[in-house]
Each structure stands twice: as C-alpha cells, then as structure tokens.
Inverse folding.
C-alpha cells in the first residue's frame, strides 16, 4: 500500500488530442478515490498513465516514494481491473486468478494458498475449474477482481468494472468492492461515468471535464458545495435544477429571485449562509434547487402560498420517491459552465439558450404537494 501522487499530469495524443491537462491529485495511503466525469473527459487516460499503459506527456506520477513515469507497467506494483474483465478464455478461473503470480514464478504452494483465499472472499471457490465462457457476468467480474487482489498490489486501478453488469448485480458488486477495499486497505483509483457509483464508493470523488479536474472532495461536500455549474449539474440524480433568474430586494429587505413570470422568495437562511449574495442584487444569477428541496424551497411557502406556477406534465412513481416534472417559464442555466462559483467569479452572466425549462421535484409518495 502506498500514497499515489499525480503532479501536473498531462497527456497529448499523437494526433494532438489533449486528453488530460495539469492533473494534480494526492491519493492517501488506503484511500478510495473515484474519478468521475462524462464520456471523453480523460479519466481512462489518466488511469492508464498511472497503470503504465499510456506514456506521460507532462508531469509526474509517484507511488510511495518512487517516481514511476519511466517504470514499466509490470514493475509498478499496481493491478488494474478493466471494464471488459480481460480474462484469458482458455484458462480456468484458478489459472486466471493465478496468472500474475505464475508469471512471477511464485512457488506453487504459495499460489495455491493465495488463490484459494481470494476465491473464498469472492465466493468463487466452487467455480475454480470453470472457463470464463461458462460463468455469468457477475462471476467473470469477480474473477477479474480476484486476479487484481491476489497480487496484493500497492495500488488498485479500476476502469468502469461494473458497467457490463445489470442494474441489480451492479449494486451488489458495488457493495462487495467497497467491503473488499475497506478490508484490504489498498489505495484505489476507480474510474466511472456514473455519479451514483462515484458518490457511494469514493472516500473522495474527483470530477473531471474536458481533461481538467473540476473539484475533488468527499461526496457530501461535492453535493453540498459544488464549485461550478458543471459540478452542480453533474452530481445528483436527478440533477440539480439550474435556472436563470434576477435577484431583487424589496422594501422590507426580503430577497426575491425573478424568473420570467414567477418570483420566488429567497429563504433568509440562504442569505445568512452566503452574505456575499447581497452583491448580486439587481443582477442575473443562477438559482440551483435540488429536486428533493423543491417542496421546501420553492413550491409552497406557508406564509405566502404557492410561489411557482406550473402544472406538472409528468409524474414518475419510483416506490420510495415520486419524481414530478414541472414545465416553467424560465431560462435554464448552462450546465457546461465551469467557471468557479466564487463570489466575484462573474458566473452570473452565463448563456441562456432558451426560455422554457422543466424542473424536477423529488417528493415522498405521501406528500400532497403534487
Ligand atoms: P469514456 O468514459 O468514454 O471511456 P474517458 O473519460 O475515459 O471516456 P478517455 O478515454 O480518457 O476519456 O479519452 C479522453 C480524450 O482522449 C477523448 O477525447 C478521446 O477521444 C481521446 N483519446 C483517447 N484515446 C486516444 C488515442 N489513443 N488517440 C487519440 N485520442 C485519444
């Protein structure tokens, strides 16, 4: 186990594509870090550079106290699990798991011992003689995990290891990976485009876009304190409602946000928490409301009555929650905007592509709001 440091890491492919730009990350010994972002954001490239499967254009990768830029993949003491599992079809489960150890000419009895221990952890003991083609997707995935675990590497690298599984199995395997990583305490970098996976697995989550790191933080902090509109919109499912509005203040000192035809009262608590908002009075702002906060924040105010005028056009019952879609006469914000949401960032001037937006609310099925 070891600390993994990426310092100013960059990758430009031969055709000029800039896949990763100045990536700085310090992953603590034993930490589970998830790299998340939309397709093409450079997360796989970053992981492959750490694995030694891709050359580094700029910057440095350190594992423990070694700079590994020029160290071949097999000598980096990392183990990678691929989306495709990359199992050897002609080898049975035992030999697939043992492969890396056999290659290193480990004594047979040691190999036997290690493979059996890992197979037991992953509930594969009864399948050790089978070939990959005779296994289910979930079992193949566990063999791929077993092959990484058996080597007891300093760092685990996982590239979308669950994306080929059905939804139910994905949730089960997610929990198994979390337990396994906690029990083994191996420094882990896990790549996914699925923000739910990122939030549930990561000690910290690093959000990337266009090859650039946007924010790295523990999941709850990312959720509560996104640094820009992109992270605001990307983290959370369904995503945060982001609406263009104008901020005004009335004679009583009450703050309001004005959409095209509706006006919402801004809860006092928001102003107390973020006094800098006062500077934005008279200017355009972006209002972000999590679907689960719709009831509290916007739709009904005990004193004022209904504030947002809309007729729900879609209701999705999900058992534990009900998602309600509200078309609203307002401008959506630009969720590709990566400018910081700092007090003087100028993030109040984002482009507004159209004048109609559908807000999503998440309510309890017992709620009578919709
Ligand atoms: P996905 O989730 O779709 O796998 P990703 O976030 O992992 O995407 P990368 O695979 O790292 O993204 O790709 C980042 C960028 O680099 C993309 O624009 C991609 O087209 C480009 N890219 C990846 N591999 C190569 C290559 N071998 N040559 C040129 N460009 C590449």
């Amino acid at each position: 186990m070891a600390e993994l440091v990426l310092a100013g890491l960059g990758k430009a492919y031969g055709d000029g594509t800039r896949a990763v730009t100045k990536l700085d990350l310090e992953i603590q010994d034993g930490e589970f870090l998830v790299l998340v972002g939309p397709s093409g954001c450079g997360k796989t490239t970053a992981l492959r550079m750490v694995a030694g499967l891709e050359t580094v254009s700029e910057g440095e990768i350190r594992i423990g106290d070694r700079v590994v830029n020029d160290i071949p993949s097999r000598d980096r003491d990392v183990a990678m699990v691929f989306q495709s599992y990359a199992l050897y079809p002609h080898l049975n489960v035992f030999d697939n798991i043992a492969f890396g150890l056999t290659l290193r000419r480990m004594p047979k009895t040691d190999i036997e011992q290690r493979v059996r221990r890992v197979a037991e952890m992953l509930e594969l003991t009864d399948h050790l003689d089978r070939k990959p083609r005779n296994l289910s997707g979930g079992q193949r995935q566990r063999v791929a995990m077993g092959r990484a675990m058996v080597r007891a590497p300093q760092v685990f690298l996982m590239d979308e290891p669950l994306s080929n599984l059905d939804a139910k199995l994905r949730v089960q395997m997610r929990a198994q990976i979390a337990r396994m990583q906690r029990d083994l305490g191996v420094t882990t970098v896990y790549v996914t485009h699925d923000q739910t996976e990122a939030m549930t697995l990561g000690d910290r989550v690093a959000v990337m876009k266009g090859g650039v790191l946007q924010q790295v933080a523990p999941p709850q902090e990312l959720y509560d304190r996104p640094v820009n509109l992109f992270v605001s919109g990307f983290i959370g499912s369904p995503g945060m409602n982001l609406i263009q509005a104008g901020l005004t203040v009335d004679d009583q000192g009450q703050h309001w946000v004005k959409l095209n035809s509706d006006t919402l009262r801004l809860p006092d608590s928001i102003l107390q928490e973020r006094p800098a908002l006062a500077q934005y009075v008279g200017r355009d702002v972006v209002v972000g409301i999590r679907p689960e906060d719709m009831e509290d924040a916007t739709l009904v105010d005990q004193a004022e009555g209904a504030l947002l005028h809309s007729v729900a056009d879609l209701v999705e019952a999900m058992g534990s929650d009900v998602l309600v879609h509200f078309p609203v006469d307002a401008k959506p914000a630009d969720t590709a905007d990566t400018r910081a949401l700092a007090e003087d960032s100028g993030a109040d001037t984002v482009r507004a592509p159209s004048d109609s937006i559908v807000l999503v609310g998440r309510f309890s099925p017992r709620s009578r709001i919709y």
